[in-house]
């Protein structure tokens, strides 16, 4: 059985997706509007990316900046549209005004996913109580990953939290995989791997020219090689 670490790369379009796969990405997160930290992409974009690559895709379900669910009926409709467009994996996460998980919104969207696998994204890094959030979401169908930096300010500040949560793997709320992203650098990788964390998420790090430029296969390959050699 392979012990290869998972490398997930943000893709905005088919060009990004092809470059990410060529560089060695294992999975893509599909979004649009990075100025709003990533919103749901158009169905046509999802279809084009699905046709361009053969690695797994996780599609963002988020309609506005921030972590409030907003119009839950629209979110449910978007999730259903994405499934009809061929999406089988997703990314989502909603908080209430007090920083707690918006369980009603999450459950309704997850119901529309009908068992598809999904990631609870970096809303966990803005939660008032990370442990409570994990326990409230424990057992929801399809939840297999938390995308987190350990802190809303990024991995530099969140590293102790990431290491502590990795040590709790298997406890109630801690079975999903930790996917580290948000200010992640290559120099963080050895300590995270040593703690048993084996999934990494990059966005800007895959784009030498910033978010106005495309994903670079070479930049992705640098991460792939670093993960494989660590």
Automatic annotation (TrEMBL):
Domain of life where this protein originates: Bacteria
Cited SUPFAM superfamilies: CutC-like
InterPro entries in the cross-refs: CutC-like, CutC-like_dom_sf
Protein family per UniProt: Belongs to the CutC family.
The protein, known as: Copper homeostasis protein cutC homolog
Taxonomic source organism: Streptomyces broussonetiae
């Amino acid at each position: 059985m392979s012990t290869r670490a998972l490398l997930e790369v943000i893709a905005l379009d088919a060009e990004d997706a092809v470059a990410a796969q060529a560089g060695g990405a294992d999975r893509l997160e599909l979004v649009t509007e990075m100025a709003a930290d990533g919103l749901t992409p158009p169905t046509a974009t999802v279809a084009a990316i699905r046709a361009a690559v053969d690695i797994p895709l996780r599609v963002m379900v988020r309609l506005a900046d921030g972590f409030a669910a907003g119009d839950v009926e629209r979110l449910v409709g978007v999730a259903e549209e994405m499934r009809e467009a061929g999406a089988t994996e997703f990314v989502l996460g909603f908080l209430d005004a007090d920083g707690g998980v918006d369980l009603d919104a999450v459950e309704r969207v997850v119901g529309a996913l009908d068992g598809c696998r999904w990631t609870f994204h970096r809303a966990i890094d803005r939660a008032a109580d990370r442990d409570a959030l994990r326990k409230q979401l424990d057992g929801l169908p399809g939840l297999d990953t938390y995308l987190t930096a350990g802190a809303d300010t990024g991995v530099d500040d969140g590293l102790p939290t990431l290491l502590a949560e990795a040590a709790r793997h298997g406890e109630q709320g801690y079975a999903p995989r930790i996917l580290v992203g948000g200010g992640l650098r290559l120099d963080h990788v050895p300590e995270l791997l040593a703690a048993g964390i084996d999934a990494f998420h990059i966005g800007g790090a895959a784009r030498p020219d910033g978010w106005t430029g495309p994903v670079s296969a070479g930049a992705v390959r640098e991460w792939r090689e670093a993960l494989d050699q660590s």
